[in-house]
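Protein Entry — a single chain follows
Fields — amino acid sequence, structure tokens
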Amino acid sequence: MEGAPVAPDTLKAVLAKPLTVLLGTADTDTADPDLRTTPEANRQGPHRFARGQSFFAEGRALATRLDAPFGWRMEHVPGVGHKNGLMAQAAAELIAARGK
């Protein structure tokens, strides 16, 4: 989010919104051919699981710096790698649980 061309008030509003960052704990393959390996991407972490945690931490730190409410939460899907179907199933279960 560093250097994003977004006004502070807009950032505050985005950080306050409810957002679930859903991460598969086994999404750690650093040799995945679809994993972005640019220097910018690698600064966020060696794999998607680490990068997701970095994204969440940066959001929380930015909310603190802007003195903004932080409405995000992070959920881990144990044992799941970069598998769309399994992540979608976990997301559906989280959504269904909120409606109870």
About this structure: The first helix runs from residue 8 to 16.
